[in-house]
Amino acid sequence: MAGAAQGGVRQVLRVEGLLVLAGAALFFSTSGFGWGTFFLYLLVPDISLLGYLAGPKIGALSYNLAHSYIGPLACLLSGFWLTLPLLSCAGLIWAAHVGLDRALGYGLKYAQGFHDTHLGKIGRGAKSTSP
Fold it and tell me: So where does this one cross the membrane (predicted)?
């Protein structure tokens, strides 16, 4: 698929995601919040998948808004700046989710369909189209 990361670049982006997940979990461990909170909210960003009920264009938009690093970093910075630990906690869990998705190969979506991502195709046919 045109526009998708391939080869070494794809692997670097996946390792980057793994490191974001590890870093977010490390900082979360010092936050004072319990791991139950972490695991309870870890999959909340996937609610954005409901956007696909309105079609692939809206689905990709809602998914990408919830799965870029912009939101988590805004939460982290705001929580730090405003001294709101709950907001920082949300940012760490959100960043961990995005990092986990990237490490697993789930990238930002293109409007053509759910299976077309910036990290390459996912799902059926992914192996046959990957270099």
Answer: 18-44, 69-95
In sequence order, the 6+-apart residues with CB closer than 8 A to the CB of 9 are: none
Helix H or strand E encompassing 86: helix 85-103
Residue 124, Ramachandran bin (φ over 0: left; ψ between -120 and 50: alpha; else beta): beta
Name the pTM for this structure. 0.88
Token pair for residue 71? Answer: 């939101």
pLDDT tens figures, 37-48: 999 999 999 999
List Cβ<8 Å contacts ≥24 apart for 27-34. Answer: 27/92, 28/89, 28/92, 28/93, 28/96, 31/85, 31/88, 31/89, 31/92, 32/85, 33/85, 33/89
